């Protein structure tokens, strides 16, 4: 699995990378603009990401703007529903309107609130159709 982690906090990126290391190759970005560029570049090279873990509150572009641009790029590129990259929004905001906006308005596949727990992340990945290997790390929170 190829994973893009878009998170502006260094420690959160580090923990998410550790959590995802057994699942596959992780690439990290620390702002929204870089996340969009990295995503599009990989798609153009025919090496798309399987999963994007996307923080909502980031510099340059926020997570909603990133998600909107990724989905627009997929549409323009002819990437159909089942071929779309799975995108999980990450945030400390538990407001129902943010969840609804992420999932229904912008097209996120799932939503996790911080601190992200390993078991919760595993469950989301399983729900999205990924079959994770056992991870040999202690449960750390982001």
From TrEMBL:
SUPFAM superfamilies recorded for this chain? Answer: CheY-like (SSF52172)
Q: Name the CDD domains for this protein.
A: REC_hyHK_CKI1_RcsC-like (cd17546)
Q: Which residues form a coiled coil?
A: none
Domain Response regulatory stretches: 2-129
Superkingdom of this protein's organism: Bacteria
Annotated GO biological processes are:
phosphorelay signal transduction system
| Name the UniProt record assigns to this protein | Response regulator receiver protein
The keyword Phosphoprotein belongs to this UniProt entry's keyword annotation: yes
Keyword Phosphoprotein among record annotations: yes
* Alphabetical UniProt keywords: Phosphoprotein
PANTHER family documented for this protein: PEROXIDE STRESS-ACTIVATED HISTIDINE KINASE MAK1-RELATED, TWO-COMPONENT HISTIDINE KINASE
Q: What is an example of a Pfam family matching this protein? A: Response_reg
The PTM 4-aspartylphosphate maps to 55
């Amino acid at each position: 699995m190829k994973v893009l982690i878009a998170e502006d906090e260094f420690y959160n990126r580090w923990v998410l990378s550790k959590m995802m290391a057994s699942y596959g190759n992780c690439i990290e970005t620390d702002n929204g603009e870089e996340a969009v560029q990295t995503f599009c570049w990989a798609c153009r090279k025919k090496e798309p990401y399987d999963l994007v873990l996307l923080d909502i509150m980031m510099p340059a572009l926020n997570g909603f703007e990133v998600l909107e641009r990724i989905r627009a790029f997929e549409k323009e590129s002819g990437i159909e529903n089942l071929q779309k990259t799975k995108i999980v929004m990450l945030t400390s905001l538990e407001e129902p309107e943010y969840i609804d906006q992420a999932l229904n308005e912008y097209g996120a596949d799932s939503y996790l609130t911080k601190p992200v727990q390993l078991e919760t992340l595993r469950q989301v990945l399983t729900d999205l159709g990924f079959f994770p290997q056992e991870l040999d790390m202690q449960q750390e929170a982001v």
